[in-house]
Design a protein that fits this description.
The strands form four sheets. This protein has an eight-stranded antiparallel β-sheet with strand order 12-13-14-15-16-17-18-19, with no helix packed on it. A seven-stranded antiparallel β-sheet has the order 2-1-11-10-9-8-7, with helices on both faces. The longest helix is centred in the first third of the chain and has 17 residues, at 10-26. The chain has 13 helices and 19 strands. It has helices at 10-26, 67-81, 91-94, 105-109, 135-139, 156-170, 174-186, 224-227, 233-245, 253-259, 268-273, 327-341, 357-360; strands at residues 31-38, 41-49, 62-63, 203-205, 212-214, 230-231, 275-277, 282-286, 289-298, 301-308, 313-319, 364-368, 371-377, 383-387, 395-399, 405-407, 416-421, 427-432, 435-437. Helix 1 runs antiparallel to helix 12 (327-341) and helix 2 runs parallel beside helix 6. It has 461 residues and is of the alpha+beta class.
Length: 461
């Protein structure tokens, strides 16, 4: 998928290199590698290292930690799309006896199942997974810390349960399902459970001295679905394309869009920071743009994948240190640099192929009470309703094929828009979830709920 770096302007490439160079130097990372995706393919790779004469490229493996969770979430969404389970199903229905079975599958995906953040000691990231051979060892005696579904509380054991769910439904090990259903179809040949050369070693950098200590490399065992994977900047660039556009061999565009949709109640601090969580994906607002993706860390490694779907730009950043560079900020900056220096060129405007006069009749100005709205018919066959001034409720609507339309987002998501006609066939008004939209404010020719004063509009005198 690697393409010529000439596709980005020289100034953009230098700005990207400068950003990762600053991150590696100031973050004191033994090495750091990054990729940028635009237009469905990687258009830039860069790397920095402390080792003379050697530099990591997009084919060097790093451990990616919790980005593994997004892979696990994709496997669960595939089960949903095949009708083998529902996101509203309690876990107990498909994986009985865990002690956390009242939580739904969607709540586990969104980290709202009330489970603890970590497995009971010892520190699971630096000890062998063989110490936790069963789910009960991962969950401990009190797996639930919070009421189910009430708050977002990040949980590694929760994704261990989702990995076990995949194994139970598929009747095969999580690793085998992952390889057959995601890695092979997407061509992620350098993503694996165990490190494959060339790969980076994991290091701890002393906080008060420029000295390093090698970190132990542990197999996470049962907790693998929460953070086991190794991957490369090149493979994760391909994965970013999939998360932005979908791939029918793995998951449809509609289902990956569902993963990118907020699904968790935010803590007050998260609301202030503009951060939330979808189904296996982190979501944040930064620099005025909506970013989705995931971060990851394990002793010796940091990882970040950041996508701006609207800008059609994604970034991957990997480093081999326990702490240091803030890769979330680096990834967001790489996206911003490209999006601002080389903004996305929109597709040409094109008119409707066929004009349905009954639909065209809906276009124009409407009033909900005294609030003015405009309704447009777009080339993709949707209706777009929104306020003419200021902010307010707006939504796109999809045709149901019977003259009615269903809202796709916001306040009107799932609500029915129904054009109502008079006895002579003329258009009277729009009924939107019981709200009446008329061509004039409180149109006396329409059956306005509550009626219209017969004296009409008047002044204060």
């Amino acid at each position: 998928m690697t393409s010529s770096q000439e596709e980005l302007l020289p100034g953009t490439r230098r700005a990207l290199l400068h950003r990762i160079a600053v991150a590696q130097a100031e973050g004191r990372a033994p090495s750091l590698v990054a990729s940028v995706v635009r237009g469905g393919r990687a258009v830039w790779h860069g790397g920095r290292t402390s080792v003379d004469g050697h530099g990591p490229d997009e084919n060097v493996q790093y451990r990616i930690g919790s980005i593994t969770k997004t892979f696990t979430a994709v496997l669960v969404m595939r089960l949903r799309d095949e009708g083998l389970l529902g996101l509203g199903d309690p876990l107990e229905k498909h994986l009985p006896g865990t002690g956390a079975g009242e939580a739904t599958i969607a709540e586990l995906l969104a980290h709202t199942a009330g489970l603890a953040a970590e497995s009971p000691g010892p520190w699971w990231e630096r000890t062998p997974g063989s110490l936790r051979p069963e789910l009960s060892d991962v969950l401990g005696e009190q797996p639930l810390l919070h009421p189910v579904g009430r708050r977002h509380h990040y949980s590694n054991p929760g994704y261990t349960l989702l990995g076990a769910l995949v194994e139970e439904v598929r009747g095969a090990p999580w690793e085998d399902v992952l390889r057959a259903e995601i890695l092979e179809p997407l061509g992620l040949h350098r993503t694996s459970m165990q490190p494959q050369a060339p790969h980076a070693g994991g290091w701890a950098v002393h906080p008060w001295a420029d000295a390093m200590l090698p970190e132990p490399l542990e197999d996470l065992g049962r907790m693998a679905p929460a953070g086991q994977l190794w991957s490369t900047a090149g493979d994760l660039a391909r994965f970013a394309v999939f998360l932005a556009t979908g791939d029918d061999r793995v998951l449809s565009a509609e289902s990956v869009e569902e993963m990118r949709t907020p699904a968790a109640p935010g803590e007050p601090a998260d609301v202030l920071d503009g951060a939330t969580y979808g189904l296996g994906l982190q979501i944040q607002r930064r620099d005025g743009r909506l970013l989705v993706g995931h971060s990851g860390s394990l002793p010796g490694f940091l990882a970040n994948l950041t996508i701006s779907v609207q800008d059609d730009v994604a970034a991957v950043v990997l480093a081999n240190c326990t702490s240091g560079p803030l890769l979330g900020a680096v990834g967001a900056d790489l996206v911003r640099i490209v999006a601002e220096a080389e903004p996305r060129i929109p597709e040409p405007w094109r008119p409707l192929r066929d004009v349905d006069q009954t639909v065209l009749e809906l276009a124009g100005q409407w009033y909900w009470g005294t609030n003015a709205f405009g309704l447009r018919v777009t080339a993709d066959g949707l209706l777009v309703l929104g306020p003419l001034t200021g902010t307010g409720r707006r939504s796109r609507f999809r045709s149901n094929g019977d003259g009615t339309w269903t809202g796709l987002e916001g306040y009107y998501a799932g609500e029915l828009l129904r054009p109502v006609r008079r006895a002579d066939g003329g258009l009277s008004h729009l009924d939107l979830g019981s709200f009446m939209f008329t061509r004039r404010p409180y149109d006396p020719e329409a059956p306005v709920p509550g009626g219209v004063d017969p004296q009409g509009w008047r002044g204060i005198g």
